Amino acid sequence: MLPPVRPAVLLVDDDRTLLAVLSRRVSRAGFDVRTATTGSAALKQLEASWPALLVVDLMMPGMDGFELCRRVKQIADLPIIVLSAVDASESKVSALELYAEDYVTKPFDPDELIARIQRVLRRASAGNPQISLDQGDVEVDLTTRQVRTPNGSHQLTPTEARLLQVLASSADRVVPTDELLDRVWTDSDGADPSYLWVTVRRLRRKLEADPDKPRYLLTERGIGYRLTSGTPTAHRS
Amino acid sequence: MPGTGLWLRVFVGFLLATLPPILLLVGALLLAESLLEPVDPNLVAVMVVVGAIAWAAILGVVYARTLAEDIRSFLSLAERGEQVDDPEFGQAYQQVASALDERNQQVTTLAREASAVPIDDEPRRVVGALVSAVRSVMRDPTWRCAVLASDSQNLLPHGVYVGLEDDAAPADIGDLEQWAAVSAGTTPAGRAEGPWGAFAIVDVSVSDRLRAILYAPWEGRAEPARAEIAILTLVGQHFGTALEHSLLYARVRSQADELNRLAAVQADFLRGVTHDLQTPLTSIGALATELRANRGVPETARADLETITHQAERLRRMVSQLLVASRLEAGVLTPRAEVFAVTPLIERTWTALRADRPFELTVEGAPHLAVGDPDRLEQVLWALLDNAVKYSPAGSPIEVSVAPDDGEMTIDVSDRGTGMDDATMAQAFDQFFRAAQARTLAPDGSGIGLYAARGLVEAMGGSVVIASALGTGTSVSVRLPAEPSGADD
After folding, report:
1. What residue numbers bound the domain in which B59 lies?
2. Phi then psi dihedrals of residue B16, to 5 deg
3. Chain segment B86-137, per-residue pLDDT in tens
4. Domain A130-236: which CATH class?
5. Which of A57, A86, A126, B145 is in Cβ range 3.0-4.6 Å of B161 for a Cys bridge?
6. More confident of the two residues B36 and B184
7. CATH number of the domain bearing residue B197
8. Distance from A162 to chain B by nearest Cα, in Å?
């Protein structure tokens, strides 16, 4: 019997100690780990083969993380997680949303990074970053986390966007509460069902014309939630 | 001429009003003395006075009518000077009207040009604009400006400026300008004659730091009239003020540019330092955790590893606080708005602090989830709990209470420590502020914990208030947006 395929992860950081620690931990989590200490070395590796995901340090001598991400995205749409000592609110880092799927602020627990890698890979396989409800009345762009409804535009939080993506990838199927908690939040968030209830409530305020009578984000009592592309209502018949 | 007629009529009226009562009085007195001996002279006097008043009243009514008409026609003529029959009066009137009109136009032009001069431009261009304005006001394209003293040669070099159209560097100050500067003397504006002929010269002196003159050839022209001197003086004063404002603006702008440059350098430096500190901290934390998980490590070494992890964690939090402070300064802090439970976060933060103190966490009201950034709130809680421990006596309890309140929740962190007086409390949230007592109790504090905490909470749409009294302790209340955590359906 063939061994299971280990997804390849390319770690790029100029700090060799951190690189060694991370390789060990990420490898132990079941990934095929490759490393590079500079942006140009990383690009060279990409010429030989593509990993399933890249982890890139933002501040590196020579070619910095921004430049590397930009060049990688020119070659292929590989998912990227950025390691950064600054937080995502830094204006420059916001620009990263163009290139990076996620970011982790240093210092971090390697387990947290592994959880993010798993989540990004799962999301990358989920597919379409656009959701269209009610024949385009409501549009969601999961990349920019923007919702456009006839009543205006709203910005989704990362959690709300993840929840929508998980529900959309299960098109019209009920996703149980436990599965949603597992796929939308990480262990370190310590989420319980109340997180899901409140997030759904807040999401409905952004998506639905009448959040008390939802048409898209429906509750299946005692089971979970379902995303539909618009249920007929009396006034819209 | 109506004026002469008017005065003649006034004189005749006066005679008519006064003569009859006087004649009546004289006649009455004579009669009283010779014929009417038994009549009381006082009665005669009263009759005369009453008669005179009645006469004056009759005349007054008649004359008031005719005089009012005269005055009305006089005023009407005064308003329409050109209709006056007398050609001499009409001409003089027209000269005055035209001089007034010209003066009005000059003042209007001055006001318009003054408001059009851009003081936020480079001072040398402002001088050019001012010279153009003076030319427009005086309707004379020969006016120039010589800047003789300026404390900032970079911003406003000495020289002769000829107008806005000419963008070239100012010409050198020559003998003419030196002479004109001396001739300007102490009068703000006037005419002077010298080897180069006659010139009108306006002094533009703001202080010793800034001196300039405006000048124009005045050969063959009469001495400037008082009205012209008044306008020129006004022009000089405005010129000086505008010039000084533009220099001030340029200085402030150059200082602001320098400050922005320094802030950018500082931000870059901080980013670099933070990165350099955070990267090894990640490795230290990860390695210590790995080693602790290794069963072969003896128990004593395990305790040491825990201390290493804890100290690395402290360092990480300090660096994070510094980073938050710099983000607040730059105004680029935008925390997430996720929902999360605060009690596990409070417990986790308290445990991470490893303070050997009694700890009490009270949760009141219906369950709620906070809306904000859990990582940021953890930073806030760590700063508040760390302060509570630092500034209260060993063994005293730290109490935290959580209570929902109409779309918000309040997290109270209280200690029974030394407390603060009103003056200290007022400054508690200031960056780098540390009370004298705080320095004694905890020499290792940085003075940015509360500053960063308040900035973070406010960025999450909440607020922080502090209540304290000397000797009884301190309580810090954080209010955050919250949502009831029950299921809707």
Report:
1. 2-79
2. -65, -30
3. 667 777 777 777 877 777 777 777 777 777 777 777 888 888 888 888 888 8
4. mainly alpha
5. B145
6. B184
7. 3.30.450.40
8. 12
Q: Note whether A107 contacts B285, CB cutoff 8 Å.
A: yes
List of chain B residues whose C-beta atoms are within 8 Å of the C-beta of residue A86: 271, 274-275, 323
Query: How many C-alpha atoms does B248 have within 13 Å on its Cβ side?
Result: 7
When scoring A89, A96, A154 by the number of chain B Cβ atoms within 10 A, the one with the most, hence best to mutate, is A89
pLDDT, tens digit, 9 for 90 and up, residues A194-205:
999 999 999 999
**What are the distances in angstroms from CA B375 to CA B307, B334, B342, B402?**
23, 12, 11, 18
Listed by start position, the domains of chain A span 8-126, 130-236
CATH code of the domain occupying A8-126: 3.40.50.2300
Does B477 reside within a domain?
A: yes
Residue B471 belongs to a domain: yes
Structure confidence at residue B481 as a pLDDT band (50, 70, 90):
very high
CB-based contact A79:A101 (threshold 8 Å) = yes
Least Cα separation, residue A1 to chain B (angstroms) = 32
pLDDT digits (tens, 9 = 90+) for A127-146: 667 888 887 788 988 877 88
Sheet containing A53-57, strands listed edge to edge, beginning at the edge strand earlier in sequence: A32-36, A8-12, A53-57, A80-84, A102-105
Residues in chain B with CB shorter than 8 Å from the CB of A90 are 327, 332
| Count of domains for chain B | 3
Residues B67 and B122 in one domain: no
In a domain, B308, yes or no: no
How confident is the model over B429-456, as pLDDT tens digits? 876 666 666 666 665 666 678 888 999 9
Return the structure tokens found at B349.
């933060």
B316: chain A residues, CB-CB within 8 Å: 107
From the CB of residue B176, how many other CB atoms can be counted at a distance below 10 Å? Answer: 17
Q: Does residue B468 share a domain with residue B353? A: yes
Do B374 and B425 belong to one domain?
yes
